[in-house]
Amino acid sequence: MPVEDAAVLEALFDQSPTGLLILDTELRILRINLTRPVLHAAPLQQIVGRHITDVYDLSAPGDVEAMLGDVLKSGAPAQGRLVGVRPKGAPGPEYLFSVSASRLESPQGRIL
Question: Is the model's pLDDT at 84 over the cut of 80?
Answer without folding.
Answer: yes
